């Protein structure tokens, strides 16, 4: 047994023994157990340790556990989300005990007294059981159901509801049974907030990762297409290197829509793996998300989003427009060192113009040739990028490209869609009149 685990286990046993021998009370027991948790799981409890005056549970023990179960919960958000959280709490008729601010965080405190008679016997027996180091989802669910917090907590797992779970949060909570403080972490990082700020849309009563996603939800509603946001995660890739993929929108027919405001290597690999039907995940997960193996995956990146925006921005109420969206991507030209191509690729310089051409290739249905200005073959778009651009070219999108950087085994190209005036969409996203 690892020394840290051993110390944690022994500390808990000693604390519980002291309590059963009446050497310490409920409050002291909880304090010491929480201290042991902090020593063992210091990262999970880092906020708790950093703000001891703001995350405080001492008021729990003013109530007799034999009659009343008390719940004290602190939910922490970045302060940039204050107006959103206030709106949601007001909408759901949830009052907080108090709200405190420090640094870039906001701490919402909730406190509830619950009659023990409202708990089924199976839960009541476990409330005081020293062996119950973890809290079952069913107990937590029943606990939350006795409070107004039911309106913002999801029906599965321990987190907030789907409509606001994208907002980074950390939750600490405790009840007056002398057990340690519990924590729930939802993609929350300390320090300055970085990355994409989740976007809460009042008209949709939902927090998305971006304005683009919110607009696509409005579009699907407008077209009468039922959707679920990030319904589940999929396991894709090889058995040796499985990847977790979280697509954005799941439609009723099992079609999937992925919104890509920008591409990075990770997102490119996952989309390629899905489109290539790489579902060779470990044997113990053989049937995981089997229903989506044959699903269609529709990609909406900047090239298609611009068409969507131009068509629907004046038709759909509450549509949010973005300015200065330039449909430019960096892609890779590969196969440049083949003997029959090397003279042509060596003649390239930065900013040299190149052209794409779809190829009927029995080895790769997505093959895209890259040609120079004299129609000399330079190589192919990498298979990952070809997987994205072949579909767009087949729909009618046209591109111009130029050399951005020349490497020893590949060439980085800057690509831009040129026929933006043509409204090119997937058929199922076209206006009903078309």
Write up what this structure looks like.
This protein is α+β, with helices and mostly antiparallel strands and 434 residues long. It has 3 domains: 3-186, no CATH class; 210-312, Endonuclease, Chain A, CATH 3.40.960; 328-417, 2-Layer Sandwich (Alpha-Beta Plaits), CATH 3.30.70. It contains 11 helices and 19 strands. A hairpin with a 6-residue loop joins strand 4 and strand 5. The longest helix has 18 residues, at 3-20. The protein is elongated, with a radius of gyration of 27 Å.
Using brief descriptors, characterize the structure shown.
434 residues, Alpha-Beta Plaits, Endonuclease, Chain A, 3 domains, 11 helices, alpha+beta, 24% strand, 5-stranded antiparallel β-sheet, 6-stranded antiparallel beta barrel
Q: What's the quick description here?
A:
With 434 residues, the chain is α+β, with helices and mostly antiparallel strands. It has eleven helices and 19 strands.
